[in-house]
Amino acid sequence: MAEGKDAATVEAFEANLRAHHGKPSEIESVSIDMSPAVISGVSEHLPHAQITFDKFHVIAYASEAIDQMRRIEQKLDPSLKGKRWVLLKDRASLTVAQRTELDRLLAKMTTTRTARA
User: Fold this and answer.
1) Which is nearest to 87 in space by CA: 55, 112, 53?
2) pLDDT digits (tens, 9 = 90+) for 39-77
3) pTM score > 0.70 for this model?
4) What is d(CA 13, CA 26) in angstroms, rounded to the nearest whole number?
5) Using an 8 Å Cβ cutoff, are 106 and 115 in contact?
6) Do the beta carbons of residue 105 and residue 83 sit within 8 Å?
7) Inter-residue contact 95 to 102 (CB < 8 Å)
8) CA 47 to CA 70: how far, in whole Å?
């Protein structure tokens, strides 16, 4: 393991792995955040590793994109006002009424950026 959040962190990890008789070329998969620096470090120092982005960061980026579109579009479509959590929550966590509201909202706005997001 190595502390940090950049390419140098992956380089330090590689050095530590080698020091303990590990082979960076045998690392097949890594799960990382979406940091360009870490992606670069993995590509350079663990060239055979398949990169998987961790679920937390993927969901965080997607949620941010949905909320940004909702904020823009609610100025033109007042029906989006107050719908932030209905749009952002996991469908399984919604009440039956909220799921119905979400379905009605999505059916009505199939051409909006918020619905596509």
Assistant:
1) 112
2) 999 999 999 999 999 889 888 888 888 888 888 888 887
3) no
4) 14
5) yes
6) yes
7) no
8) 39
Q: How far apart are CA 37 and CA 39, in angstroms?
A: 5
Q: Are 86 and 94 in contact (CB under 8 A)?
A: yes
Domain map of the chain by residue range?
7-53, 56-116
Residue 39 near residue 75 (C-beta atoms within 8 A): no
Amino acid identity, residue 84?
Answer: R
Contact (CB, 8 A) for 80 and 104:
no
Does 34 score more than 80 pLDDT?
yes
Q: Categorize the per-residue pLDDT at 1 as very low, low, confident or very high, splitting at 50, 70 and 90.
A: low
Distance from C-alpha of 54 to C-alpha of 59, rounded to nearest angstrom: 9
- Residue pair 61/34 in contact (Cβ under 8 Å)? The answer is yes
